[in-house]
Specification:
single chain; alpha/beta; Rossmann fold; 2 domains; six-stranded parallel sheet; three-stranded parallel sheet; 11 helices; binds nicotinamide-adenine-dinucleotide; binds serine
Amino acid sequence: MSKTLIIGAAGQIGTELVLELRNRKGTEAVIAGDLKESCPEALRGGPYVQMDALKREEVRNYIIENGVKEVYLLAALLSATAEKNPAFAWELNMEGLFTILDLAKEGHVEKIFWPSSIAVFGPTTPQINTPQLTIMEPTTVYGISKQTGERWCEYYYNNYGVDVRSIRYPGLISYTSLPGGGTTDYAVDIFYQAKLGNEFSCFLKEDTALPMMYMEDAIRATIELMEAPKEKIDIRSSYNLSGCSFTPKEIAGEITKHIPDFKISYAPDFRQSIADTWPGSIDDSQARNQWGWKERFNLEMLVKTMLENVNVDLLKTISS
Ligand code: NAD
Ligand code: SER
């Protein structure tokens, strides 16, 4: 049986991606791998392996010995956490990628998914309807690592025929696990505070528009891209992808329609200077035209779904 491995499976994207891939390919065919010693509750129904993406030989041996043919490499430090430890962020965000690209170059792995981010853009990028091809001068270590990763993915495709596919995810909004240290995390945290009846202190200014996406759309996009015929994939760096864009004031306004007493205040911190360099909205016409991408969730649906499903007990797992 050909196997699929998700590295960084216990995070915000991985916990949902693994379950959807298991639905499609069969539970035993999809292995969740993560640095964490114990498998998250949601993934316990299938194979789990503790692995460190930075241990090149161990990752290589595992993939070759277990017949893994498809890899989703999700392990990374996100934008805010990466700024606190730039050297380690660079190491983690780059080294694991080379391990997997080389395995594909040697013919062990047949297909790779590696996520990029809106963080590849910078202060000199046009911020409204940011095009696929444009000025890219990221100022964060996270953005630099994603931009560099994109260049290497395209290089391995052009020079070695490696079938690597990628999306520049916007900020992702979900309720099954907590986000991992990004600049867009406020748009998840806000729902927990709203459900707890607390005032929410937002670390971005009220008018900071950022591209966002509900997780169900992101997982569907990832699988649609991975299943698209090769001839439909013209971009081997990473695709722009758009869901819905909003500001803290706009999401708070939408929450107030459900919880009229909800209050938000603003205390911008270092993440404001990261957000200021990112686009407010994204032009994703290549993804739409080439492999048929279309989002389903707008801000209204996203807020309603999050408020219906957020479980504040998840906050107790933060320190565990
Ligand atoms: P996350 O922080 O929630 O999860 C990352 C997972 O990787 C964690 O479970 C962590 O334990 C694991 N990990 C860390 N170091 C590891 C190592 N050395 N070996 C194995 N596993 C390790 O991140 P996420 O939000 O799920 O993001 C996944 C990917 O998608 C990242 O590359 C991220 O840059 C990208 N992305 C995410 C978003 C978003 O909004 N969530 C947006 C754009 C891009
Ligand atoms: N959500 C991510 C972050 O804020 C974007 O890549 O870091």
